[in-house]
Amino acid sequence: MKFTTLKALGTSAAISLMAASSVWAAECIAPANPGGGWDFTCRQIGKILYDIGQVDAPVQVTNMAGAGGGLAYSTVVAERNTDPELIVAASSATTTRLAQKAYGDATADQVRFVGAIGADPGVIVVAADSPFQSLSDMVEAIKADPSSVAFAGGSAAGGFDHMKPLQVLKAAGFDDITSVKYIGVDGGADAITQTVGGFTQAMTGDMSEIVGFIKSGEVRALAVLTEERVPGFEDIPTAKEQGFDVVAVNWRGLYVPGGISDEDFQKWADRLQAVADSAEWKQAMADNGLAPFTKVGGDFQSWIDGVVAQTEELSREIGVIQ
Amino acid sequence: MDIFANLALGFSVALSPWTLTLAVIGCFLGTIIGALPGLGPSNGVAILIPITFTLGLDATAALVLLTSVYYGAMYGGRISSILLNIPGDEPAMMTTLDGYPMAKQGRAGEALVISGVASFVGALLATIALALVAPYLARIAYKFGPAEYFALYVLAFATLGGMASRNQAKAGLAALIGLAIATIGLDNNAGFDRFTGGNLHLSDGVDFLVAIVGLFAVAEVFFFIETHGRDSAVGVKLERVVVPWAEMWSTRWTMLRSSAVGFIAGVLPGAGASLGSFLTYMMEKGIAGEKGGFGTGVAKGVAAPEAGNNAAAGGALVPMLTLGVPGSGTTAVLLAVLMTLNITPGPTLFADRPEVVWGLIASLLIANFVLLLMNVPLVRVFVKVLMVPPALLLPGVTMISFVGIYSLSGSYFDLVLMILFGVMGYAFRKMDIPTVPVILGILLGYQMENNLRHAMTLSGGEWTYLFSSPIAIGLWLFAVAGFVAPIFLRGMLRRPQVAEADKVID
């Protein structure tokens, strides 16, 4: 008798687990495993949407890792094209890969980019005891001997993290970029441990990935790749002020399926604007090293079109695609 | 002294009735999730995340609930390994090797008790180690570069020779098939897809959970259908649960050694608990030698992997909390939760948010005792869940597996793949080829290759880089010893009298 009750309890627990992962509420697809930037975007935006009453039920986050976001992209285009309750986390990596044709035949116009509400500034960091004191020191060392400096980053070869130092070197007039060593490890924190351990000489990544390590003094940031210094991190110089005209920020935002109505698109744009305006989001940005960067709705879509075209040109120039 | 003040702070957080309730609920759910094949700790924790937000739990409460589920799942995984020969989650894979033979001999109760106690010992020691040395231990991660990791994986595979009790060539073949499967997907170092046939679903490789559920659970269904349940694993009866004190005492050193090795495997970011249970099983098998009877149903064979994987679960929390580097799939999910709660794990977490860290450590200690209670005296409750008639149980398990796998990727493709693995598992079992090495190949192959490629990138193609540090050389020596020793040991054991004589002198 007792066991029957417990068995029923177990079964109902199992059922409620399944119910919790059903698709009744709005769903946010994070096209990567838990722990990364896209996952953060989904979980944070989803949580705030619910906390500020923009949605009635907690947003269900689905992790759909695969092909650097390509799996989620093709799934949305092929299987969920008209789902008005679906949002997908996106970032610079999404448009970089679309521009580089890394998602197979998929193109950027197959979905609608609804907005970005923050940007993670690109950074280049070294271990605290590194001989490099400025970005110029490092660039000169690479010019003298390209094999003397290896970079670690959280994206695969050819990805956004890989392109950041290449853009800097390109801006410094160094053209032999295929000789630059880069290893793509599992995420920014892993790239930092490789750099602190002395296996690589520098780490390329996003500001959010290095905050804790900067505070603890284990790494030094040589440069942040923004127009101006980032609030809260005023002592980190920009690449621009060191003479390297490179801006590379990883914006955090969402896209929605291409087949939804204009009303539904506007609904998500308004919701996203509400998140951007909320105190919770401002706090989350501050806690995670994100800089303000809000572009929502139609403006964002046209900005994205420009970025994709620009990235395509740049990728061709630095030899990532033909 | 500091540590007691910190622990006092932790217990003041963890001992509130609300937190305790959450810990008990978490342990219970976790054990069930672990026991059900297809639902492992990582998707179990992921599924529970929305619930923590719905309940409006604060950071500490959410962490207590989710880590109780994590620890609970690590305990629960062994139950279906022992009773069904289907690992409840991937770290429990090694437990099938001796756990199921024990169950077939009518010693399921002993296997459950010993593995439960081993789980407790492993998890408890790991939690204590986490509290004592986490900030210092995190530095181990800084000592491991691509060359050291590669040597570590070589060590894992070098010991594989002793894996199969009957035919080593077949075990080797299975491992190679696993490694071949691991090469499917995006080549992270060149940016090109390999062996995907243009299918985007394959470009991230084959998920080992899909492989595990297919090779074990789905294959079991096929077997069940063929034999109408006669030769099937399902249906092992659990008679009486008695505590085999003497047998348990005989495994004490196994438990302690395995806890230490498992913990270190967990601290190293990588395969985490699975590597932990594998290395500990192999180590104990090596120590016991041919006469140890590993693989035929011995107590040490269930104690080693269970102490190992539970210690690794605790160890994996070290790099997660102190570096923000997840040591396993589940800690990656926990990391995501922390970030959502605006807690950034990293070198400053212990100083910035002591109440979170020490609350977590204190509740892990409590969860451990709750889990010991649930998994030894009350183990029948969970066994009951698995002891419904096989004709009902197998379809049920299969259904839950399908749901669990679907929740991973939200795509039907993995379900098709899982069935294909089921067919493969069935065929392999017919040909007497072990399936555990296949999983290990898939599990470790990706990281092993990546680290080799990274090492070659960093050194400019210079192979001596692989032997360039004391740690790497040490690991290589162990690997060579692990590979060669069984060959010589076998030669010596052919002359048992000599071996006996040597023993007397000792």
Distance between the termini of chain A: 71 Å
What oligomeric arrangement do these chains adopt? Answer: heterodimer
Biggest interface, and residues per chain?
A-B, 70 and 70 residues
> What is the radius of gyration of chain B?
22 Å
- Tertiary shape of chain B: globular
Strand order, largest beta sheet of chain B:
1-2
- The proportion of residues forming helix of chain B, as a percent range, comes to over 70%
The run of helices and strands of chain B is HHHHHHHHHEEHHHHHHHHHHHHHH
Q: Structural class, judged by helices and strands of chain A?
A: alpha/beta
Poorly predicted runs of chain A: 1-23
Taking the sheet with the most strands of chain B, its summary is:
2 strands, antiparallel
CA radius of gyration of chain A:
21 Å
Described by strand count, sense and barrel closure, the largest sheet of chain A is: 10 strands, mixed
Mean pLDDT of chain A: 84
Poorly predicted regions of chain B are 494-506
Strand content of chain B: under 5%
Q: How many helices of chain B?
A: 23
Number of helices of chain A: 11
What's the order of the H and E elements of chain A? HEHEHEHEHEHEHEHEEHHEH
Total beta strand runs of chain A: 10
InterPro entries (chain A): BUG, Bug_dom1
Pfam family, one (chain A): TctC
Signal peptide (chain A): 1-25
Protein name (chain A): Tripartite tricarboxylate transporter substrate-binding protein
Give a brief outline of the structure.
Chain A has 322 residues and is of the alpha/beta class. Chain A is 43% helix and 20% strand.
Describe this structure in words.
- The complex is a heterodimer of chains A (322) and B (506).
- With 322 residues, chain A is of the alpha/beta class.
- Helices cover 43% and strands 20% of the residues of chain A.
- In chain A, strands 1, 2, 3, 4, 5, 6, 7, 8, 9 and 10 form a 10-stranded mixed β-sheet that branches.
- In chain A, helix 4 (92-99) packs across helix 11 (298-317).
- The longest helix of chain A is centred in the C-terminal third of the chain and has 20 residues, at 298-317.
- Chain A is globular and about 55 Å long.
- Chain A starts with a helix and ends in a 5-residue tail after the last helix.
- Chain B has 506 residues and is an all-alpha fold.
- In chain B, 73% of the residues lie in helices and 1% in strands.
- Chain B has 23 helices and 2 strands.
- Chain B has helices at residues 2-14, 17-35, 41-54, 59-84, 95-104, 108-137, 140-143, 146-158, 168-182, 208-227, 245-250, 252-267, 273-288, 299-323, 329-340, 349-352, 354-375, 379-386, 390-409, 413-430, 436-459, 470-493, 496-505, and strands at residues 185-187, 192-194.
- In chain B, strands 1-2 form a two-stranded antiparallel ribbon.
- The radius of gyration of chain B is 22 Å and the shape is globular.
- Chains A and B meet through helix 1, helix 2, strand 2, helix 3 and strand 6 of A and helix 2, helix 3, helix 7, helix 15 and helix 18 of B.
